[in-house]
Amino acid sequence: MNKLAIISEETVRNIVTRQLAFDAVRAAFEAVAVDRAQVFDVVIGTGLNQGEAFAIKSGKDCEHEVIGFKCGTYWAGNNEKGLPAHGSTILLLDPKTGFSKALVSASYLNGYRTAAANAIAVSSLARSDAAVLGVIGAGHQAEQEIRAVAEVRELTLIKISTRSQERANWIADRLQDVDIEIQFTSMEEAVRDSDIVVTVTPSEAPLVRDEWVADGTHISAMGADDVGKHELDTALVKRASLFADYPEQSIVIGEFQHGYKDELINSADEICALGLVTLGKSPGRNSDAEITVFDSSGIAIQDLMAAAAVFEAAIEMDQVQYIDF
Q: Which DSSP symbol is given to 232?
């Protein structure tokens, strides 16, 4: 009988750190960039009600012998229930048998994984003196993004734009321990004069206008992971250097799908895989005046590598529950 390891959210919370997530996601970026890993087509479905959707993202890393998939969910109504809108579960498969090896409750882990992707992009692409962060969105993931970026740049000001005073109050309370000035502003003010701009929304209409973005800005578009999602003015792709976790996916379900559809991007070859930058195979930012845009549509290898790292740590700490399956 097959033994299935169960990694609970409580166990994940006890184990995951920014550094664990950073290392796992960087390894995933690099594995995909040099074809040591493979990402399979995303399967997207919907729930019973409008605003409910899920995505199945799968992949394999041959070098580390990691294979499996993640089911990521977005239930918009969860906020009214006091629950995160996003949910995540990862299943790691035994590469020798194909049987289920470990089931990881990954909603908390996903927050760290996604923020780690942003932190790596900011660390690699934002100006070294970048100190002002503008954030559009104030949900659970926005908090994670802010904390991760604050670890890779010495921030002096954080500007947050949200349409809800309730969300503003919530995130202000969550960030009380962050010793950086926080201002709540309009979207335009969040973008203008910011060195780093992070969008963390499910928007299907562009929020960041081209004319708001100054030379030298770095933008991390973290929200687009489905057909139709759209956070940035498409005109930005004409002014900026483009980077993505996985370029081939970014033009299908990521932020760059719109530039590709409008023929401002001819192919994924015009987008640099971030892993090439972290490996030193691409220079990334070339000047302080350059605008850089990172599109994070989310790839399975990031999730699988992070889950595998948590699983290994849980074994070492004797925090794994096994069931007959």
A: E
